[in-house]
Amino acid sequence: MDEEPMEMSPDGNRNKSYYQGFHDNSNSDMDVDTSHDMSYSSPYVNNFSFRNMSATIATSSPYKSEAKYFHQTGESVKPLGMRPLIAPKKNQEKKISNLHKDENLNTLLSESNKLIKSSLEKKKSRSKSKEMSPREKRVNRRKSENQYDGRRKFYGWLFLAVLFALLSTFIVIHQKCHIHMDINKFEHVFDENVFGQHIAKHALTTTLRNISLRMQNDTKLSTNPLVFSFHGWTGVGKNFVTKQLLYGFDNARVTTFLIPLHFPHKSQDKEYKINIQKWVKGNITLCYVNMFVFDEMDKATPGLLEGLLSVMKDIQRIEMEKTWIIFLFLSNSRGHQINNYLFTEMKSGKKRNDITFEEILPVLTNLDSSDEWYKDFHKQGLIHTFVPFLPLNKYHVHQCIEKDIIKKGSQPTTELINSISDEMHYIQPVSDHVPYSLTGCKRVSDKVDIHI
């Protein structure tokens, strides 16, 4: 006996039959006219095949599309009663949504591939349209070669500059600083430009030679700073000689203070005492000749003098390698005493050039009964060398005039020199037949400018 085939239910369970058998009894509420149903033609029913006409049919309400169809055609909705009610699977909706996502992704990928292909084709077409001629290729090749040569030269010079900087730094760090003073050069400049000051020349050159020898033999000196005190009348050459000292040093740094200009107020004396110490210490540079020039020291205030004394003592305690510190104090102090000594010696029959440094030095150092500004400096041994400047007579003034005329590019004549000299002021000492200038050579340059 043949067994009836098993049917699959919509939920995937295997049953005897998906449609339960119809029991023909009197309690049935539903009679089906199969002949009518089988002959009915509808797009929603034609595709449905009845396997078991005796099965119980599950009815369902029409969908929106079905209701619209039957409403438009006017057909009967009775065949819908023959449609089995099939519940959709839950996973089926997920699969459908995933399929839609995959389709969208594939669409995007295909569109992006099309865009990439089109851009590549455009680039190829542009490159083909921009094919250069042989001449253009040669020009571009030359340009690229020139650019390469320029870059190579730039980096070459850059390398040399860096190498030079490194070598310079190495030399500065590892080589001991060398301070050299050309004493012969200083003497030559002095003789060419300074007149009538043989004592000042002797005092300066002797001191500088001694210090230079000590510096060559010992790199570290724990001594007093080199202090020169210039004394003499106005216009005798104190400032000029100070400038000429610079020609003797290869590496000199000068700081100049004019007392009436930089320290004018006695009411600020306490501030001057503090500030001068800071300024001096702050301007000392190793491996250099550090020169501090103080002009018109005879007008210095007590606080300024105390500050200078203090800073000079502090410098004594410092060992400095290859470093010179030079103080130059310029003043008119003891100028009258120097002039009187000269006139007295000449009255006794002694010539000017025969007077020595050792003979005139006591005029500056014997300060028992005087109250000079440098008295405390001298007592504490801070002044290394006193430099006296003798007064200048008319003959020396003529030398200054002639030198200044030549310096300014004119030809000096006796008439021109005499006319300029006659405008200067002189005194006539009893001991000498030659008059002496009251202002030395100080106003010579201004007079020369007027006459040439």
Automatic annotation (TrEMBL):
One of its GO terms (cellular component) is endomembrane system. Keywords: Membrane, Transmembrane, Transmembrane helix. InterPro entries: P-loop_NTPase (IPR027417), TOR1A_C (IPR049337), Torsin (IPR010448). The chain crosses the membrane at residues 154-173. Residues 128-145 have a biased composition (Basic and acidic residues). GO terms for molecular function: ATP binding; ATP hydrolysis activity. The keyword Ion transport does not apply. It comes from the Eukaryota. Residues 1-34, 119-145 are annotated as: Disordered. Belongs to the ClpA/ClpB family. Torsin subfamily. This is Torsin-1A C-terminal domain-containing protein. It comes from Mytilus galloprovincialis (Mediterranean mussel).
